[in-house]
Write a structure and sequence with these properties.
The complex is a heterodimer of chains A (about 650) and B (about 250). With about 650 residues, chain A is of the alpha+beta class. Chain A is built from 19 helices and 18 strands. Chain A folds into two domains: about 280 residues, Alpha Horseshoe (Serine Threonine Protein Phosphatase 5, Tetratricopeptide repeat); about 200 residues, no CATH class. Chain A has a four-stranded mixed beta sheet, with no helix packed on it. A two-stranded antiparallel sheet of chain A has the order 1-5. In chain A, strands 2-3 form a two-stranded antiparallel sheet.
């Protein structure tokens, strides 16, 4: 009996002491002080905000969204910059496919920014005022970027600048924030960036390498955003109003000039802080100009890189080279040749023989093919920036000549070779007199002189298997020439993505200035375009008078090609549906004439007859149905 | 022991059975809305495209909310529509497509005219017929029959006229296309690019062809020996840039 009493007392003692301390914070849940009272906690918070920053980098494609590893429907294959075997038509972004929740994901980031902005001041005593201001500036920067990502897709979206709290029993209707007008959201983007500009230092104190924001980063993105808003005000035609006359889609045209002016002003603040990359450049040496343009994407100390996204093996990786190397340099786990620049893109550049209408000249005066000893002869004087962006047939990369050949032509060549097909034909090439290969397993053809040659080049073009340079070109930009072929693997690369570089800021300024359109602005635009052109090795423009808005747009498309920028430019200029209107893009097919022992080229439309038609309603994306179910206040965009 | 098992089994059956009976006590929708979009000027149905860029019917179920989430269904390509799975309720119905909108707003979003029709459906298996008189942006009419040429291409003739005098919808014609397809579901989202003849116009070039007999010939050489359908699409930069179409026609390969 005594024993039972002892046991009972022991239990009471244990329970009693346990009870005293039950009101302690759960140690397995991270509390505000854990995060907000020390720099390591702040850094962890920032790491997440930046990792979710919506930028279209190495891991973005319209098909699979942001932060996705598998990039086989690459963005350039939706814009006419390139063709890809896995992307065969125009498309709007595929929200809801794969793991992409653009709506919920963006509002999660906005919530995280709001929470940071509301909570950090409580812990301000633990840090210096400069630290607190800088971090708040970064949170505003990330929030501005996220609203920018939403408004460029959807038009007006709900503005939620404080964390929403639900208390049981309260009216949940207050959580269903309706869409604001498109103009209000662009103004929100501007004001978030303005706060960041005012509060961030010139160099980020935590990471000064451009991977985190400083005031100039915010100003650079402000110039991009305001140029976007100005373009919408000027060129958009679709409109949508809610019941209280808020314009959810579209901005009054009268607002355009104000936005363009803000873009110019923001861009000008970067003057003298960043500069165009010219480390390897020489005014007289095209090879140096080429090398300089190649290096600018890989030099970590480039004064042109303003904002970058860094990767690190194995935590955060991409596979750009694996998807995009030419076929003959294919990596151990396959892929290759996903981005094959179109002839339409290549023809924008200087230094290639052209007809009066701007198309490439490959026929002589008598209507026969021009013959070349080497495929690169056609491009002997090509603009260095073209070579640094596109691997031309026969050009050198990683110590090899990238061999691109459609077939061997065995017909007679005396007196000239006439075109294989009538001009404009969309038919397949006739198989008579052509020796072709269906895939990379080729059977060599014996030439009249007894030597042998494969029918197609080592990098294509193959008639059956499209893992090759289907357009006659392969992409060069971003490829790492020092990456060993054994390392050309998916999820294995850590090359830095340059999201914002000074060339874009200059081009933003030139375009906005030209849109404003008085004498000084046009001269400013002219000077900028010539700076960009001379760095690229292109022929400078003669005078401001020869410039049109198309000159500036074309320069931008050439300079920023394959950087996932053109997709957004075509949208904001509202010309996507004009360019992709039953469009079949053009390709350039190199052939070898066995009887002449020389090469010739044939320009034609894509042999696969892939038709691109952009639906104008896509300028405003469809708000995900799930978001509307949760908040029926959200009015759907027109046409969905 | 056995008895207990029986009891348990019995209980399970009773629970399972009673829970099943309440899964769905609402009858399936069985009412039909059918009808057509008719050109107010000619009385013909307004030809459109199959799929998301064609005419669609918009239902606003106003029984429970003055501002409901709209429900849409697509029209058929000949301009008729039919949906046999409609719940009994009150609906405000309109159509959207390549014609002057039935619900018009001014430049700050105020509704200035609303030709929607409100219907109340009661009971089951009813059929409600609705016809909407609209003004298409453009009318595309054949002139004669397609002609089979000696080189096995086909030449067609047609006329384009404006279907509306509304000053807001007099934009220039941007595209006049001859679509060739091997089915009658021929249109901007379904055609053979090898033979179709797509023509874009800038400025007033396309508009100047209004009222004239236009001649287009298929491209890309001889047509293949199979069923072939022709259709003309034309559009102005209005609304969502949808096309107005002619009827599809077929000709026999001689």
């Amino acid at each position: 009996m005594k024993r039972y009493i002892y046991i009972l007392l022991t239990i009471l003692a244990v329970c009693g002491s346990a009870c005293r301390k039950i009101n302690i914070p759960p140690p397995n849940i991270i509390q505000n002080p854990d995060v907000f009272s020390n720099t390591a906690g702040i850094q962890a918070y920032m790491a997440r905000l930046y990792s979710q920053l919506p930028i279209e980098d190495f891991r973005y494609s319209p098909q699979r969204g942001l932060n996705f590893f598998w990039i086989i429907s690459p963005t350039p294959a939706t814009t006419g910059e390139a063709l890809s075997r896995d992307q065969t038509n125009s498309m709007q972004e595929n929200f809801g496919g794969w793991n992409w929740d653009i709506w919920g994901g963006s509002y999660t980031v906005i919530h995280d920014c709001d929470y940071f902005i509301e909570t950090l001041p409580t812990y301000a005593k633990d840090f210096t005022p400069a630290q607190v201001n800088a971090w708040l500036g970064e949170a505003y920067f990330v929030r501005g970027m996220t609203y920018f990502a939403l408004v460029k897709r959807f038009g007006g979206v709900p503005i939620v600048n404080k964390t929403l709290q639900y208390t049981v029993g309260s009216d949940p209707g207050t959580l269903k924030v309706p869409r604001s007008s498109e103009k209000a959201v662009w103004d929100q983007v501007a004001s978030d960036f303005d706060f960041a500009i005012a509060n961030l230092p010139a160099v980020n104190a935590d990471y000064g390498d451009g991977s985190r924001a400083n005031k100039y980063v915010a100003a650079a993105f402000k110039s991009r955003a305001m140029l976007y808003a100005g373009s919408i005000a000027k060129y958009n035609t679709a409109t949508l109003f809610d019941g209280s006359q808020n314009q959810l889609c579209g901005i009054p045209a009268s607002a355009a000039a104000g936005y363009f002016q803000q873009a110019v002003d923001a861009a000008k603040t970067l003057d003298g802080v960043y500069s165009l990359y010219l480390k390897a450049w020489s005014a007289t040496d095209k090879a140096a100009q080429y090398q300089n343009f190649v290096n600018l994407f890989s030099d970590a100390t480039s004064p042109e890189s303003i904002f970058v996204r860094e990767y690190q093996y194995p935590n955060s990786v991409h596979g750009y080279d694996a998807y995009n190397v030419p076929r003959q340099l294919i990596g151990p786990n396959g892929y290759s040749s996903e981005v094959n620049p179109t002839l339409n893109f290549v023809e924008m550049f200087d230094g290639i023989p052209k007809n009066a209408n701007g198309t490439i000249q490959y026929l002589d005066g008598t209507g026969h093919y021009v013959l070349y000893n080497n495929t690169m002869d056609l491009f002997a004087n090509a603009e260095p920036r073209l070579r640094a962006s596109v691997i031309l047939p026969g050009d050198a990369f990683k110590g090899q000549n990238i061999e691109i050949r459609r077939a061997i032509y065995t017909g007679a060549s005396a007196g000239g070779i006439s075109p294989l097909l009538p001009a404009g034909s969309k038919s397949q090439y006739p198989s008579t007199n052509l020796v072709q290969s269906a895939n990379a397993g080729q059977t060599a053809f014996t030439l009249p002189d007894g030597t042998t040659m494969n029918p197609a080049g080592a990098s294509g073009i193959f008639t059956g298997d499209q893992t090759c340079a289907i357009s006659g070109f392969s992409v060069r930009k971003w490829l790492d020439p020092n990456l060993a072929t054994s390392q050309v693997l998916e999820n294995n690369e850590a090359q830095t993505w340059v999201e914002m570089r000074y060339a874009e800021v200059l081009l933003n300024r030139a375009e906005a200035a030209y849109e404003l359109g008085d004498g000084t602005n046009i001269t400013d635009a002219f000077n900028i375009i010539n700076q960009i052109r001379s760095r690229a090795g292109a022929i400078p423009l003669a005078s401001p008078g020869v410039m049109t808005i198309d000159t500036i747009r074309k320069e931008r498309r050439k300079e920023l090609a394959f950087e996932n920028k053109t997709y957004w430019d075509l949208r904001r200029w509202r010309i996507f549906d004009k360019e992709q209107n039953g469009t079949i893009y053009r390709v350039l097919m190199p052939f070898y004439s066995s009887t002449a022992g020389k090469y010739f080229f044939d320009a034609r439309t894509d042999e696969r007859n892939d038709v691109y038609t952009y639906d104008p309603k896509w300028y405003y994306e469809q708000i995900p149905g799930g978001a509307i179910s949760k908040s029926p206040n959200l009015i759907q965009n027109p046409g969905y | 022991m056995k008895k207990t098992l029986y009891y348990m089994a019995f209980c399970l059956v009773a629970i399972a059975g009673s829970s099943c009976s309440k899964t769905d006590n609402y009858p399936a929708p069985s009412n039909t809305i059918t009808g057509s979009t008719v050109d107010a000027g000619t009385g013909n149905t307004v030809q459109t495209e199959i799929g998301s860029r064609g005419t669609r019917v918009k239902l606003l179920e106003t029984s429970y909310s003055s501002d409901p989430t709209p429900y849409y269904f697509q029209s058929m390509q000949d301009g008729t529509f039919n949906d046999t799975k409609i719940f009994a309720a009150t609906y405000k119905v309109s159509v959207e497509g390549p014609f002057v909108p039935l619900v018009q707003t001014d430049n700050i979003g105020n509704v200035t005219s609303d030709q929607s029709q409100t219907i109340t459906i009661k009971g089951t298996s009813t059929v409600t017929t609705l016809n909407f008189k609209v003004e298409p942006f453009l009318r595309v009419d054949w002139v004669g029959q397609p002609v089979f040429n000696a080189d096995s291409t086909v030449t067609v003739q047609f006329k384009i006229t404006r279907g509306t005098a509304n000053a807001n919808y007099q934009q220039d014609i941007t595209n006049i296309n001859l679509y060739v397809s091997n089915t009658k579901y021929d249109g901007d989202n379904n055609y053979d690019p090898r033979y179709s003849n797509l023509v874009s116009y800038s400025g007033t070039d396309g508009t100047s062809l209004i009222g004239q007999t236009i001649t287009l010939t298929t491209t890309g050489g001889a047509l293949p020996q199979q069923d072939v359908y022709f259709r003309i699409g034309a559009r102005i930069n209005a609304r969502l840039d949808e096309y107005n179409y002619s009827t599809p026609v077929s000709i026999k390969y001689p």
